[in-house]
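User: I want to check something. If I give you two sequences, will you return the structure for each one separately, not as a complex?

Assistant: Yes, each is folded on its own. Here is the first sequence with its structure:
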Amino acid sequence: MEKTIFEEVGVKYERQGDYLIPCLTVPADARRKNSNVPKKK
């Protein structure tokens, strides 16, 4: 069986019911990328 892209880069999976969900996280510096969004006045 061919590996998925997640398996190739070493992502872990978590079983939820009948499904395998990849355990993904967002790096802390990526959360601040929305600084270009104009603020409401």
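And separately, the second sequence with its own structure:
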Amino acid sequence: MIKRGKHVCPVARCSVLVPNRLLMCPRHWSLVPHRLKREVWKHYVPGQEDTGYQTEAYNAAACAARDAAQAAEESKR
């Protein structure tokens, strides 16, 4: 059961619940290159987690960050 105001980290095989205001769990966020982190925050619109609206630029940055964290996780195996 997912608690209100939280979502599961989007990195494959991670089941950590994180607040909606965060993209992913701290462990996976630490694997994202700083350049991509800056892009995510550049396109973040305060309150988007409440409205459900995210810009295309934010979604693209979020997907790139997720993919980078996933690739880093897989390279550890």
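Because they were folded independently, the notes below concern the second chain alone. The chain has a mean pLDDT of 93. DSSP finds four helices and two strands in the chain.
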